[in-house]
Amino acid sequence: MKKKSALWFLASLLVMISLLLSACGAPVATTAPAATQAPDTEVATEAPVADTVVATEEEPAEAPTEAPAAAVSPSCGTDPVVLNAYFETGFDIPFKLSEEFTKQYPNVTWDIKQDQFTNLINETPRLLSGDNPPDLIRLPTMVSFANQGLLMNLDEYAAAFGWDEWPVPQLNQNRVAEDGTRGSGSLYAMGLNYSLTGIFYNKELAAQIGMTEPPKTVAEFDELLAKAKEADLLPIMQWGSAKSGMGLAFPLQHLMAAYGPVQPINDWIFQKPGATIDTEANLLAAQHLQQWIENGYFPEDINAIEYTDASARFGKGEGVFIFNGDWQNAGYDTDMPGNVGFFLMPPLEAGGDPAAMSAPLTFGIAANAKNADCAAFFFNWIATDETARQIDVTIGGSNPGGPSGLTMPAVTAGSVTNETLAAGPVVGEAGTSMDFIANATSAIFAQGWTPELQKMVGGKQDAAGLLKAVQEEYLRELTQ
Amino acid sequence: MPAPSKSTMTSSETSDRPVATSLSRQIRKMVRRETIIGWLFVTPALVMYSVFVLVPLLLSIQYSFFRWDGIGPMTWVGLKNYQTVLEVPDLLGTIFNAFKLVAFFSFIPVSLGLAVASIIHRVATGRLGTVARTVLFLPQIIPLVAAGIIWGWLLALPGLINEILNAIGLGAFTRAWLGDFDWALPSVGFIGVWVLLGFCIVLLWTAMTKLDPAIYESARIDGASWFTEFSTITVPLLRHEIGVCLTVTIIAALAAFDIVYVATAGGPGNSTAVPGIQIYILAFTQQRIGLASALAVMLMVLVLVTILPIQRLTQEVSK
C-alpha cells in the first residue's frame, strides 16, 4: 500500500512538473494549496468539536516517509478525471458539493452510485476490496476497514494540505491506532461537516408551557417536561422502531454526559481496553431515562415509530421537544419555519458544561483508489472553499469545520441552523463533545441499544439490566 | 417363451442383417442424440442450480466451521459457531420465534384455506367464485416488501386499523400493533396469513374441481351434511395438496425474512427476530460470516427435519 501511494505521489509529481514545464499556468496548481499555510491565530470560537478525546495520547504524528515537495500539493490536475464515488441516498450535501466542484474544476466529472445507509454498511467491505475501488465513499464505520487495509491512510495528505493544523478534535474521530482503537493514530477518513446534537423544541408549544428561555439544569428541564405532560402535550417526540434504530439512545447519551464526564463514554466508543458503559454515572442516567419513560414523556407507540415518522409528527406539532441532530435543520425549517428552536442538553448542576454528541459526516478513500489525490484535494476544497462551506451549512445544517480563522458562512435569519451553529463553540470550548454510543461497534445499535431500550419501554428491562446487557453484547462483538 | 422369440430374431437377423444393424445403430444413435439434447436442455438449469444453490450451500457449510470476516484470513474453529448459536439466548430465541410464526403462516392459512375453498367450490361456482378467488389471491402478486410497508402503516397507532377499532367502539383495544411486545409477533403472523391464504385457497380449490362429482352426489343421496362431506371426502382426497400447502407455508415461516424485516426489523426487543434477520445482521452488519453460516445451516436442518415427515406422510397416503 505504501508503495502504491508513493507511486501515486510520484505520478502526481510528474504531472505537476510536466504542467510547470509546459507553462500552462494551470489554475489548479495555483489554487490548490489553500491550506498549506498554518493558520496564524487559534480562534477558539471556530472549533466545532470539542478537544475532548485522548488529547493526552496524541501520537507523535507519523512523519510521512517521503517528504512531500512542499510547493506541490496533490490535486486533480488538468487531465480529465472521473471520480468514482459512493454516496448515501437521501443526503443532498455530497451531491451538491460534487456539482459545485465540477463547476470550479471542469476536468473532474463524477461517476456517483448511491445507496441507503443500511445497505452501505453491508456493501462497504466488498466495494472497498473489489475491482473498482471507490475514490470517495461514505463510511458507516471505519475501524475494521482500516485494520483490514481497505482504507487509504491519509497521513501524507494531512501533512501536505496542513490538515494537522486544524483544530484538533475534527480529525480525531477519524483516526485509528495500530491496536484498533479509534481517536488517535493514523488518519483514515475526513468529515464533510461536523454534526451536533441537542434538544429541538416547538417554540409555540414551549411558550404554552411557560418556557421563556432554555433550561439551565436537568432539574429545570424535568420541570418543563412535567408541565408539558400536565398541559396534555406530548413532552418528547422520539423514534424507536428497530427499522431506523432506537432514538432513545439520544436522550440516554445526553443524560450520561450530564451525570458524568464524557471521557469514559468516548473511551467506550473508541474501544479503549477495559472501557465499560456500565458505570455508576451511566446507571443514574439510565434510571433517569427510565423515569421519563414511566412518566409517559415519550409517545406510547415509540417502539413502532420510525425516524421519518417522528420528524414528520414533530413537524406537525406533536411533541414539545425532540432529541435530534442538526442534520434535520433543513427539514425543521421547512415544516415549521421560524418555529423551531434548539438548545444543548443542560448540565446537572447550574454553571456546569453542557455536552453534545458530535460526529463528522465521514468519507474515506479506498486503499487502491485510482484518483486518491483528486479525492483528497476534494476534501480540502470542501473545508476551505467559500462556496463549498456555504453549501455545507445551507444544505447540511452543520459546521463545515476546516482551519480555524475562516469565517462561518451566512445563514438565513430565523433558521434553526443559527442556533445549532452558535451552540457548536460552546461545546467546543467546554471540551464536552462525544461520538455516538450507537457507533461503538458496527452492530451495537442493532443488537444492543435498540432491543434493550425497546424492552425498557415495554417494561421488560430496567436501567441496570440495560447497561449490563449492552456491555455484554459489546464484549461479545469485540472478542469475536 | 424366450426361445421362439430368440429364434425368430436370429432368423430375421440372418435374413436382412445389414438393415437391422443399421436400424438398431440408428436407433441407438437417436437415443444417444436424444440424451445429448436432453442434457443440453437441462444444462442451463443445472449450471444455474449448481452455481447459485449447490455451491453456496456447500460453501455455507464450510464457512460455518471457521471464524471469518468475509475478507481476511479464515480461522478454523470447529463446532464453536454452533455452540455459540445454542448458547446465546438472542440467537436461539430467533428459532423459537420462527416456530411461533409457523402457526400463523401455515396452520391458519391451510385450515382456513380448506374451509374457504370448499365453500367456494360448493356455493360460488359462477362469477362470484372467480371474483372471490381473484381477490383472495391478489396478495400473492403484490411484492412482499410493498405489502409489509402498507401493513406497517395500517397497523401504526394512527393507522387505519386502530381508527376502525375506535369507530366501532373498541377504542380500548387500540395499540401500536407492531411496537407491542405481546402483539408484534401475532401482527406479523397476521400479515403472513393475508399473504399465504390466497395461495392455499387457489391450490386447494383447483384440486377440489378435479375430484369426481359422483362421490359427492352419492354422499348427498346418503344425506351427508356439508361437514361430513368435508371431513370424510374432501380432506382425505386432498391430502397430497394439503401436504404441498403445509410444506410451502412452513418453509415460508421458518425462512421468513422480507415481511418481518419490512414490518418490524425484529423489534421490539427481538420479540419478532427470526433466523433470517439474524443471519443477515450477523453476516453483513457484523461481518461474522462463520456464525451466520452456522445459524443458516441449523435453520436448513430444522426446515428439513420439519418438512420431511410431512412429505412422507402425505406421499404415502396419496399412493
Q: Work out the oligomeric state of the chains in this entry.
A: heterodimer
Q: Into which percentage range does the β-strand content of chain B fall?
A: under 5%
In terms of structural class, how would the helical and strand content of chain A be classed?
A: alpha/beta
Q: Which runs of chain B of at least 5 residues are low in confidence (pLDDT < 50)?
A: 1-15
Shape estimate of chain A = globular
Q: Helix fraction of chain B?
A: over 70%
Number of helices of chain A: 19
Termini separation of chain B (Å)?
Answer: 34 Å
Query: Regions of chain A with pLDDT < 50 over 5+ consecutive residues?
Result: 12-71
Strand content of chain A: 5-15%
β-strand number of chain A: 13
Radius of gyration of chain B: 28 Å
Average of the residue pLDDT scores of chain A: 84
The strand order across the widest sheet of chain A is 2-1-3-12-6
Give the biggest beta sheet of chain A: 5 strands, mixed
The most extensive interface, with participating residues per chain, is: A-B, 36 and 33 residues
Element-by-element helix/strand order of chain B: HHEEHHHHHHHHHHHH
Helix proportion of chain A = 40-55%
Mean pLDDT of chain B: 87
- Counting DSSP H or I runs of 4 or more residues, the number of helices of chain B is 14
